[in-house]
Amino acid sequence: MKLGIVGLGLIGGSLGLDARALGHRVVGVSRKESTCKSAIAMGAVDDASTDVSILSTVDMVFLCTPLSKIISTTEQILPFLPKTAILTDVGSVKAPIVSQMQALLAEVQAQNPFVGGHPMAGTAETGIDAALSDLFRDNPYVLTPTETTPVEAVNAVAKLVRSLGARLYQCDPMTHDRAVALISHLPVMVSASLIEVCQSERDASVRELAVQLASSGFRDTSRVGGGNPELGRLMAEFNTDALLASLYQYRSKLDQIIHQVEMAEWDALESKLLLTQRDRPQYLKG
Ligand code: NAP
After folding, report:
1. How many whole angstroms from 250 Cα to the centroid of ligand 1?
2. One domain, residues 44 and 58
3. Would you state the pLDDT for residue 122?
4. In 65, 73, 109, 231, which residue has its Cα 20 to 30 A from 123's Cα atom?
5. Ligand 1 proximity of 126 Cβ (cutoff 6 Å)
């Protein structure tokens, strides 16, 4: 198959490395000429350009730009795509992308099928130099077709996703957004707040000692709060309602803990921690 990748960064570059290893021909588009050159040099693409006409013979296009650029980029590339080329994106939020994409395709009367997608894989790094082989292996990859998405297009994207070694899931865009608010977007905000609390310690000697003593526990709990700020902002901007719902729930759980500590309700606190100890493993089966 001939694949197009638009946005040669961590996700786009990683997809390119795996797709080429699987024998697909891959052409890339990115904003910067230097990124295109790097992608070719590292073997993430066979060819790349800032000129979108390079996509004129592809079978499938992965839209891997930042969330805020997915729709405008699609608008730009559509006139150059074969009418049968399947479009799929990798954006971390699905409902607004899927609805705006369907509206755009209808408005310009494009025949190209679109399948929303989200690989649940990443690192704290960004850009083409952060691209990794096998990034998607054994990680979830969610597709979010709607009732109007052609089944053949869903099957074609699903086949490619499975060939990356990813664990394929399908659900509607809104359910996806509510689920990732809980396990991905809320943790970013919680983890960022944790780092902020440490940094706001007024006693410099305590803060400096905390920096020295921070070990594996802090590494685990602060990791996602130390990731790409632009991605965190876009999660909040694009998934506002679901993120707010999960933040309100989190605040209420924190208030319960504050109350238990203030009231010295140690048994109640331990009971809560027994439940969280029991429940955590079900989220880590993958
Ligand atoms: P990234 O490393 O910053 O890569 C995005 C790349 O897109 C940039 O390197 C940039 O390349 C290019 N770009 C930006 N604007 C563009 C435009 N207008 N036209 C063409 N290319 C453009 O970001 P990423 O982490 O790969 O994220 C990309 C997408 O994957 C996002 O939609 C995000 O929601 C999704 N996602 C991210 C993760 C994660 O953990 N990082 C996980 C799952 C899904 P230049 O160097 O050419 O400017």
Report:
1. 29
2. yes
3. 86
4. 73
5. yes
Q: Provide the pLDDT for residue 240.
A: 98
Other CB atoms within a 10 A radius of the CB of residue 255 amount to 10
Its domain, for residue 180, covers: 175-284
pLDDT averaged over the chain?
Answer: 97
C-alpha pair distances (Å), 175 with each of 38, 77, 140, 142, 163: 37, 29, 15, 11, 25
**Which segments of the chain have a pLDDT < 70?**
none
CATH of the domain at 19: 3.40.50.720
CA of 279 to the centre of ligand 1 (A): 34
Nearest CA to ligand 1 atom 15: 65
> Ligand 1 centre from 232 Cα, in Å?
13
